[in-house]
Amino acid sequence: MQDENSPLWLPRLVAHGGPRFLQIADALQAALVGGSLKPGDRLPPQRQLAAQLGVDLTTVTRAYDEARRRNLLEGRGARGTYVAAPKVQLTSVLDLSMNTPPPPDGVDFGDMLKQGLSQVLMQADAELLMTYHVCGGSDSARKAGAKWLEPMLGHMDCGELVVCPGAQAAIAALVLALTQPGDVVLAEPMAYPGLRAAVTQLGRRIIAVDADEHGMVPGMLEEACRQYKPGLVYLNPTLQNPTAITMPERRRQELASVAKRNHVRIIEDDPYWLLADAPPPPIARLAPEQVYYISTLSKCLTPGLRIAFVLIPDPGERERFLAALRSFALMDAPLTAALATQWIFDGSADRLTEGIRHEARLRHRMARDILAGRYGGVGDGLHAWLELPGYWNSLQLAHAAASEGIVVTPAEAFATGGGAVNAIRISLGSIQDRRRLQAGLQRLSHLLARRPGAFSTAAV
Question: Which of 127, 277, 313, 338 is most buried, judging by how many CB atoms fall within 10 Å of its CB?
Fold first, then answer.
């Protein structure tokens, strides 16, 4: 408990305010901005501060390390730790543009990382973790992939899986292996930007198929298949990026039937399935012969692992895929693959995913409360889709938000063809501290309520 002699800047730690070390670092930064701390002020020794806050020494050490990373503190040896003279602007940008998992309460990610790597190094030869490996993943990594995918797809043969260095590499390899230059890839009008990048860079064409409130329209897919004879259809049916739509099971079955009639295969990119509330079965479970299924760990665990699992049942197609993958990504990183494998088998991955799911839902509730009628989320996942009032357009709004220190993603970034809808995507996990997220959402809400005024389309 804090006493009456505690420094004025000392934070009052709250249970749902994010990791405690970040609360302390944020309080230091706020005190420096607000003037209650000044450059040259001496900070309490770490043990003393830990006792005043009622936390362990490690928490304060991590807080001081984070504050040093922000250039707020400097050590002066035996004389102690002091507030540094400002080296950078202290008002940091609030980034609502990147779909990354939020830090879950009650999970010390740093400790989890240390323990996981310690287990990996105890069980594996360090030299083997630092050398070349066979493209497509080790037996143990593919077995871990089968375990990871079991909630989505049930029991499977791990020999049908390929381990990739991320979903983007998997998408590019599928396009390269299974289509020819000039071929068409069909997608919804709003889709993951990485798909468009891969398709166009590889000399293929992306064509938009109309969607409604349930996703891609089956009749429009049928018509597009007859007209364009596509090489592939790309779908992200669960918590779709960017619209956050989850396609109902009947629509999934209808689209699989259309694809089968027209002899075209589906890439099912499904990064958010484990974060969704009672999602329908993946299309790959409903029509396994029609689908290449991709599940990345980036959205449910951490992007730093750069691991995705790809289900390709046909051996010939799997070999073509591996040949394509090797042309630009020789292998997944053995160390991160081993860490992902360790976490999946020891239960750490499930615990982290559950914590992220819980934190994401708290953040969606916050966004719904602050943005009121403008909130376009569904209560889970990592992002929300905000349709804008008529007096804003999405590029104009993104420009105005950036001028106020908020980064959002306009609909144009996701458009696969034709005009973009008047909307923005906001990501709720990229700001680690929930209080800073709240401040960003409140600032965005105030901006949405104002008319453009000085901001003009010509300025964008």
Answer: 338
